[in-house]
Amino acid sequence: MLGLAGPLGTALAGAVRAAGGGCGESGGRPLLLVPMPSSRRAVRARGHDPARRIALAAARSLRRTGTACAVVPVLRQRRAVADQSGLGARARRANMAGALEVVAGGERLLDGGRPVLVDDLMTTGASLAEAARALSAVNGGQFPRFEPPPAAVVAVSPLSFEINRN
Fold first, then answer.
1. 60-108: per-residue pLDDT in tens?
2. What residue numbers bound the domain in which 31 lies?
3. Could you give the number of structural domains in the chain?
4. Are residues 123 and 154 in contact, defined by beta-carbon separation less than 8 angstroms?
5. Residue 40 burial (CB < 10 Å; 0-12/13-18/19+)?
6. Could you tell me which of 109, 102, 120 has the C-alpha nearest to residue 55?
7. Domain of 33: which CATH number?
8. Which of 39, 158, 32 lies closest to 107, judged by CA?
9. How far, CA to CA in Å, does 14 sit from each of 6, 11, 58?
10. Which end of the chain offers a freer environment for a tag, N or C, measured as fewer CB atoms within 10 Å?
């Protein structure tokens, strides 16, 4: 995955650019790439954080084309979650419910920007839904100028389209 971070980031930047129509430039609001958090144990085992690494590469690519963009790793796990690999859609949602939060002071980093959640893989969307809930909960659900964040995912399981009816 380390060698793929650059190309995947470039591809992700292209997808974000195409989906957002220059969203990082609209109204002077920067695009904020919010990587999905990995557990400390997973980062130690892998030796890196893939979603963050891909988000950094995507941000570099977006900035090169004039899009105001930053990576803001403001999400963290507030409690342990089970390994999701053997869980179905309903169990994944239950496993992730209430598991993420915005770090102290993270609301300042998000203020005035347009967040885009970045993950390296999506199966059922339970993790991304929980991340969107955590971002929406900032300031008691009264995040200034906040819209529900879109999500940018590098790899999607074919089953996710069946499971979610997307």
1. 999 999 999 999 999 999 998 888 888 888 999 999 999 999 999 998 9
2. 2-164
3. 1
4. no
5. exposed
6. 120
7. 3.40.50
8. 32
9. 12, 5, 8
10. C
